[in-house]
Amino acid sequence: MINPVHLQTLLEVVRRGSFAAAASSLGYTASAVSQQMSALERDAGVTLFRRSARSVQPTEAALVMSRHAAKVLTDIDALLAASARSDDGDSQELRLGIFPSLATYVLPRLLSSPEWPTLGINVHVSVGEPQQTIGDLRSGGALDVALVYQVGQSGLAWPHSLNRQWIGDDNFRVVLPRSWGIRPGSVMAADQLSDMPWIMHHPGTSDASVIERLFASCNLHPRVAVYSDDFNASLQLAGVGLGAALVPELALRNKPDNVVVLDVPEIRLARNIFALLINDARTARVEVFVDKLASILQEMTGTSSVDLRP
Q1: How high is the pLDDT of residue 285?
Q2: By three-state DSSP, how is residue 162 classified?
Q3: How far apart are CA 25 and CA 23, in angstroms?
């Protein structure tokens, strides 16, 4: 019988890339993590890691097991939440703060899923930008959980007393007007985009500063035609030919037909998405809610795979 605790540790080792990093994240010693992984290998009858003096490398069996383990652990949490619900007969109220694109494209998929009624959660939603929701997320405040994003090492901050859980990444993509005649999926160098008009964030915001530094590092100095902090507006304005834009993948769910998406290898940027929780609100049901939302997000954005470098 495979121990679910060992599966959770496996996920963390694969995600973090080493026994030591996983141990630090989970509150174990590196030796305890190594012992758990050895026990899991014995129970499963497969080799999960190639060990050397300086690193551990997951085998294909470890990668396959980790993909299935995430679902197994979520199902176990759902089972516990459903059992708790049947035991007390009451729904838990969850006051949720969430940013617009996650509320538009991800949350509705969870709320309309067959699993949602079994969670026993009565959710109250407040849609706003991260700065707003973090302000409401404090003991005795208006929210229990905030779903926020951070671009690079931007100025977004939250109290250390909050529990932070990464739930996925939303990668930015370069879009151009289709009328410019560049084929969808074309690979372009950043400096080829310098002479084009651009739709950019308003200057002075933390996201704008991160993007400006990234562009400067690529020797890309955009000629700004439009300032817009609304990605849907940026897509529509790009579609009518006003300029190129940098847009996260979630917003591309509403991509108009008159824009094309490019691959610009030098421009690699993502919104790192986190759930911030007040510890008093961390129940089995809330944990399941966050895990299921993370699964949907990662399925939509392709961020369920992890960086396996040691």
Answers
A1: 78
A2: coil
A3: 5
